[in-house]
Amino acid sequence: MDALNITETTGKSYCSKNHGKMHACGHDGHMSMLLGAAKLLTENRDFNGTVRFVFQPAEEHGRGAKAMMSEGLLERFPIDEFYGVHNWPGLPAGSICTRVGGIM
Questions:
Q1: Cα 16 from Cα 25, distance rounded (Å)
Q2: Per UniProt, which keywords does this protein have (predicted)?
């Protein structure tokens, strides 16, 4: 899901198995975090409300978000709160950076 058209040449044990495709900027981490959150919330439904998981395409420049908004995402799926997760090179491992409003 969400790979880029780039051939991986790292030689790492976890490198892409699909020639000519790779997650060059951490998209595999983004996908893993959201799928992990979906799994945990599905297994532990002790909360009120509805949770929706949005996999945003083309997030680097906001084009994916703009396309999703223009296609009526929030009209089709009304929300009270929206949380985003993104890896951030340079933060120490195990750190979390938060703030209200946009961050990227």
A1: 13
A2: Hydrolase
- What's the pLDDT at 20? 92
The residue count of the chain comes to 104
Q: Which amino acid is at 75?
A: E
Helices (H), the chain: 27-43, 63-70, 73-76
Q: How far is CA 104 from the centre of its chain?
A: 13
How many whole angstroms from its chain centre is CA 24?
Answer: 14
Q: Which domain holds residue 45?
A: 1-103
Nearest Cα neighbor of 85 from 93, 75, 96 is 96
- pLDDT at residue 104 in the model: 63
Report residue 38 CA to chain centroid gap: 12
Residue-wise pLDDT for 43-88, tens only, equals 998 988 889 888 888 777 778 888 999 999 999 999 888 887 777 7
CATH code assigned at 4: 3.40.630.10
